[in-house]
Amino acid sequence: MAVILGLTGDHEGRILFEFGHATALKIAVAMNFGEPFEELDSMARATLSELGNLIAGRFVSLHNDAGGELHISPPILMCGIGMRSSDQSAVHRIGVETPCGQVYVNLSIRQRRAPISLPRHKNGTLATH
Amino acid sequence: MSEDLQIRKKDGSPYRFMIVDDSDFILKSLKLTISLLGGEVVGESKDGNEAIEMYKKLRPDVVTCDIVMPTMSGVDVVKHLVNLDPDAKVIMVSSLGHKEMIEQAVSRGAKYFIVKPFKPADAAGAINTVVKKLFRHTA
Question: Is residue A116 part of a domain?
Fold first, then answer.
């Protein structure tokens, strides 16, 4: 399963957190102060989404305190087996071994390109050949 | 439950809280936090527009408000609430804890900023202090 958040601002892209079912359950239990979860119910899913929000929020805050400007979108949780992404942009994938199990962080981000400025006449219409 | 965190109005009634957050997990954590304070959650909303309408009806003593939400930013929610009620007491609760965001929220009228993640007992301690200050409690 995966939690994905969009990034916009001086850079654009997305950050995605991946973990297996067993790890997801352990994270939900740990974040809910030991409350047991036998399945990934709505509260467990909300907890995992919030985990993505917390980590991405920290990342964005550090970037912005260093003079950058990033914004995040609300998290989206995706569940499924054998998920494939068609994203062709460069991805940084980091595996993190946590007490709850392996979590992979996928970061796909690039500097935002300046908008293309087309030549215009004084009246604002596009200057075409 | 720590008795030290409990706080009541001067007439002995509990403070009335409204929670604005699109995460069920944070709603649950904040409800626990408010129970540690002996407060009453009178309303909860996951959406900024709904929260503004709810505030008009409920007039809670304190609002806790997230920032990243689907339809309206929490910073804009604060602005609307303070326009509606200049005496509105809004505490921001967000994972976005950078200086500029905190300054923006405070400039729109937020009274305090709690950076997520938080432990309910720690957040209750902070809210206890803020509520005492905002409502001019005397020792």
Answer: no
| R_g over Cα of chain A | 19
Q: Considering the domain boundaries, does residue A124 fall inside one?
A: no
CB contact under 8 A, B101 and A62: no
d(CA B34, CA B22): 17
For chain A, the 3-state helix, strand and coil shares in percent, each to the nearest 5, are 25, 35, 40
How far B4 CA lies from chain A's nearest CA (Å)? 22
CATH of the domain at A47: 3.40.1550.10
Nearest-CB residue to A50 (from B25, B100, B101): B25
Q: Which domain holds residue A44?
A: 2-111
Determine if residue A106 is left, alpha or beta; phi over 0 gives left, psi from -120 to 50 gives alpha, anything else beta.
beta
User: What is residue B45's predicted lDDT score, i.e. its pLDDT?
Assistant: 97
* Residues 6 or more apart in contact with residue A97 via CB below 8 angstroms: none
Does residue A118 sit within a domain?
no
A29-63 pLDDT tens trace: 999 988 999 899 999 999 999 999 999 999 999 99
Please check the confidence at residue B139 and state whether its pLDDT lies above 60: no
Separation between Cα atoms, residue A60 and residue A58, nearest integer Å: 5
Provide the number of structural domains found in chain A.
1
Contact residues, B window 108-127, toward A, CB-based 8 Å cutoff = 116-117
The ipTM assigned to this model is 0.83
